[in-house]
Amino acid sequence: MPKARILIVDDEDKIRELLRLYLEDRGFDTVEACDGKNALREMGRGGIDVIILDLMMPNMDGWEVCREIRSTSRVPIIILTARGGEMDRVLGLDLGADDYVVKPFSLREMVARVNALLRRTAPGLEGQVLRFSGLVIDPFARTVHLRDHDIHLTPKEFDLLYYLACSPGHIFSRDKIMETIWEYDYLGESRAVDTCVNRLREKLRVPGYDFSCCVVTERGIGYKLEAPRED
User: Fold this and answer.
1) Do 163 and 224 touch, CB atoms closer than 8 A?
2) How many separate helices (H) and strands (E) can be counted in the chain?
3) Residue 140 has pLDDT above 90, yes or no
């Protein structure tokens, strides 16, 4: 089985080396980039499974890199930064990042997060294709079609939609969604769930059809998908 390939993007040589050695010791292949432009160049070569992306870099910062990557790719992105403020985390998620790690960080935790993303983006071995009015969710190909439109979701957005869609009408608390989709405590915040839901709703609107209203907020509780299944 081929090794997962991790792109490490950071302008600090010591951090890149530390991550490279630790990840390779645990069976990953790694590629390094010291700035945003080199990161985009490596992405253009293909074969990247997860990106660990520093925010504060010269010339092209991580936010811009994330925006560029998300315009063409759904590869999982873990933002790595010394900036731990809530607005910085929310901005990273709004741009399509899948996770957020604040420096200084635990190498074991980083590997756990990489593995969690790889599990989530692996081809589905279980489950079934789910069909609703105009919406088709395929867990095997990890694709979503809404009417005649391909809906491009990040790994977390896809996982959230499929999770809700497996039990239409059932209300899931933010904590339960966090535990299931993120698989660990996301800095103790449920805001990540709200941000992911908002991004998902935006993408479920296409010309002439709006499925976003089916992702329903239950105030003070959580979220549910309110739509009849088509068997």
Assistant:
1) no
2) 8, 14
3) no
In this predicted structure, the answer to whether residue 60 has a pLDDT above a threshold of 60 is: yes
Q: For residues 67 and 180, which has the higher predicted lDDT (pLDDT)?
A: 67
Segments making up each domain of the chain, as ranges: 5-121, 130-225
Cβ proximity of 96 and 154 under 8 Å: yes
What strand order describes the sheet that includes 143-146? 130-132, 135-138, 143-146, 149-151
pLDDT, the chain, mean = 86
pTM: 0.65
Annotation: CATH topology of 5-121: Rossmann fold (3.40.50)
Q: Are 69 and 92 in contact (CB under 8 A)?
A: no
Would you state the structure tokens that stand for residue 201, as one six-digit string? 């709703």
Tokens describing residue 183: 């698989």
Name the one residue in this structure whose structure tokens are 């010291």.
34
Q: What is the pLDDT of residues 163-219, one digit of tens each?
A: 999 889 999 988 888 877 876 555 445 678 888 999 999 999 999 899 999 999 998
**CA 53 vs CA 9, 102, 154: distances in Å:** 5, 11, 16
User: Phi/psi of residue 95, each to 5°?
Assistant: -80, -5
Q: Find where tokens 């253009």 sit.
A: 44
What's the distance, CA 83 to chain centroid?
Answer: 19
Tell me what pLDDT residue 61 has: 87
Q: Describe the crossing of helices 86-94 and 191-203 by its angle, rounded to 10 degrees.
A: 30
130-225: what fold?
Answer: Arc Repressor Mutant, subunit A (1.10.10)
Q: Name which of 69, 48, 51, 52 is nearest 2 in CA terms.
A: 48
Reported as type and span, the H/E element at residue 217 is strand 215-218
